[in-house]
Design a protein that fits this description.
single chain; mainly alpha
Length: 82
């Protein structure tokens, strides 16, 4: 049972619905990641975090795949499912 209130897909409207749709479109699984849903009560904040995440994971010195591998490794070390 989540302790953070999150807006389900069916209840998202306006800016949040647009963010959810973009997130689903970008997702291989076609879902909104739970970590993003935790910010669903603040679409303005979610928009900023989403933009920062996109910037962080764009190819530069490291590829997207390398960023993901590092993030997965650190999450495993911290015993975090994200």
């Amino acid at each position: 049972m989540p302790r953070i209130k999150m807006v389900p897909d069916g209840e998202a409207s306006g800016e949040l619905a647009e963010i959810y749709a973009r997130s689903k479109g970008d997702s291989v699984a076609g879902v909104v990641p739970e970590i993003l849903r935790t910010m669903s009560l603040r679409p303005d904040f979610l928009t900023a975090i989403d933009a920062a995440s996109r910037l962080h994971f764009t190819d530069g010195a490291l590829t997207r795949a390398q960023h993901e591998m590092i993030a997965s490794y650190v999450s495993a070390l911290n015993r975090c499912r994200y």
